[in-house]
Design brief:
The N terminus is likely disordered. A hairpin with a 4-residue loop joins strand 1 and strand 2. This protein is α/β, with parallel strands linked by helices. The chain is built from seven helices and 14 strands.
Length: 371
């Protein structure tokens, strides 16, 4: 009996690090049953805390579905269009890394039912065109990610119907033609709930929103574009809508007189969240200099304008002097003509004198020769 008790104590020490009274059973089989009972209890608890992912029998063949989270993921497939058999319970749809070149009208209601999507990710699909009413039926959509595509055509009604859209991501997605069409595409009234707009990495030179008050924007990401300046009109809008937070790093700013309005806004406002990372690209003498370290005289339009005005004024004065001189010549043309004739006659008389002397003494050197 003592040997059995010591054996039980040994196994209890092996499994739990210390002897436990409840495991000091009468025989080995009772101890093993107790260990199995605890293992089963832990398994049940883990199952309840981390339930397995349930999949839908009607899930598209190339996708992975999770009913509990309402997520359908179609990743790195050969899809050339939006799958038409997306389950109705889907709230998050991730289509990433496919070959979808065009989003036609009503692209998400091809099976005759409207999806109740709240999140839609379409990044890295090579999308080139978004036609009118492409997102029709997605009135509850909150987030739309179109980053890393090659958008060359955006219909003016591409985003029509997105009444509750809060976040729109278009980073590294626009070609030059797509960038030119973006402003009109963002002009639809249904985007008035938009809080965050990201258009980084698209070589934009102007803010694609004509009027900031047309949206409920809280964040505008314009990083890594081709902004040389922020125009005075846009600066005035930023002064008016102080809730907007703007991001402008990695842009090639031209630090000259034209930057004056933006420079003073940057000094007096805290709206630019990455102001410390804004650098001058031109002129060469200021390349790499943070905009925050510029001096007022570096962007003082008054000095540059005065210098320009001084040159213009000097040119005007010289032109007036020349004009007066020509007018004097014109008014005195008769006297000037007589003066020129007198000079001509005097020259002629002088030449005749020289000619006469030459005829009288054709070789003056002979006159000095003694016979």
């Amino acid at each position: 009996m003592r040997n059995k008790m010591s054996t039980c104590t040994f196994y209890a020490k092996y499994y739990f690090g210390k002897p436990v009274r409840m495991f000091c059973c009468r025989n080995i089989s009772r101890f093993v049953f107790t260990v199995w009972e605890h293992f089963y209890l832990v398994t049940v608890v883990c199952f309840l805390m981390f339930p397995p992912v349930k999949s839908d029998e009607n899930c598209p063949a190339s996708c992975v579905c999770a009913i509990d989270s309402g997520t359908v993921t179609c990743h790195d497939g050969d899809e050339t269009a939006i799958p038409g058999d997306i389950p109705e319970w889907t709230t998050t749809l991730i289509l990433r890394g496919n070959n979808i070149s065009t989003l036609p009208g009503s692209a998400f209601s091809s099976n005759g039912t409207e999806l109740d999507l709240m999140t839609l990710s379409l990044s890295y699909n090579g999308i080139q065109a978004i036609e009118a009413y492409a997102f029709s039926g997605l009135s509850r959509l909150h987030l739309l990610d179109l980053s890393h595509n090659r958008l060359a055509y955006l219909s003016d009604l591409a985003f029509y119907g997105l009444l509750e859209l809060r976040s729109l991501y278009l980073n590294n997605s626009l070609t030059s033609s797509g960038a030119a069409q973006l402003s009109n595409a963002l002009g639809v009234e249904s985007l008035r709930s938009l809080h965050r707009l990201e258009v980084a990495g698209n070589r934009l030179k102007t803010i694609p929103i004509a009027n900031l008050d047309a949206f409920n924007l809280h964040a505008l990401v314009l990083s890594n574009n081709s902004f040389e300046n922020i125009g005075r009109e846009n600066v005035s809008s930023l002064y008016q809508y102080t809730r907007v937070r703007i991001y402008l790093s990695l842009n090639p700013f031209r630090c000259n007189c034209g930057l004056e309005a933006f420079y003073y806004w940057l000094k007096n406002s805290s709206q630019c969240q990455d102001a410390a990372h804004l650098l001058c690209l031109e002129p060469e003498t200021k390349r790499g200099l943070p905009l925050e370290r510029l001096r007022a005289e570096d962007v003082d339009c008054l000095n540059e304008n005065l210098e320009a005005v001084s040159y213009v004024f000097l040119g005007i004065v010289l032109a007036l002097i020349g004009l007066v001189f020509l007018m004097v010549l014109y008014l005195n043309r008769a006297g000037i003509k007589r003066w020129l004739n007198n000079i001509r006659d005097a020259c002629r008389d002088q030449m005749e004198v020289y000619h006469y002397r030459y005829e009288q003494d054709s070789d003056p050197r002979l006159a000095n020769v003694s016979v």
